[in-house]
Amino acid sequence: MPNSTRQPAVTAGAPVAASAATVTGPAVMAPGDATDPRWWVAPLAATVVAPLLSFLVAVWADLFTALPVFLIGGFALPLAAAVPGWCLARTRRRRQARINLATLACLLAVAYPALIGGIGVVFFVVMLLTGNIHS
């Protein structure tokens, strides 16, 4: 006579039916893990505004006639700072990081001519003080 009330033996590594029911339940999310519906605003603003600021600063400082080769960095460096904003997780928790990256990109766009000028002055002074400038 078969014993129908007997439970099958559970072996190591075998899935248990009771634990499968708990896994499929709703996931508990922290408030910062919610999807940010406007995640794209800061990266888009940086992607559009940073090259525009670079262009305006280059026109204001007359860099198109003086140093056209250095303008490549003036456009590339701010955009390189804005790119990670597109790649961050699209959650509310990462919103401030996206805003910080957009702000950094815009600041780099405005400060790039001063940055290049400062590096040039430091390079000149070091070369002068070390005796590497000859006439």
Descriptive tags:
61% helix; mainly alpha; 5 helices; 135 residues
Distance between the termini: 111 Å
Low-confidence stretches: none
Secondary-structure content class: mainly alpha
User: How does the major sheet shape up?
Assistant: none
Radius of gyration, CA atoms, in whole angstroms? 29 Å
Mean pLDDT: 81
Shape: elongated
Number of helices: 5
Proportion of helical residues: 55-70%
Q: Please tally the β strands and state the result.
A: 0
Q: What percent strand? A: under 5%
Order of helices and strands: HHHHH
Describe this protein's structure:
- By secondary structure, the chain is an all-alpha fold.
- Helix content is 61%, strand content 0%.
- The chain has five helices and no strands.
- The protein has helices at residues 17-23, 41-60, 63-66, 71-87, 95-129.
- α2 (41-60) runs antiparallel to α4 and α2 (41-60) packs parallel to α5.
- The protein is elongated.
- The N and C termini lie far apart (111 Å).
- The model has no long low-confidence stretch (mean pLDDT 81).
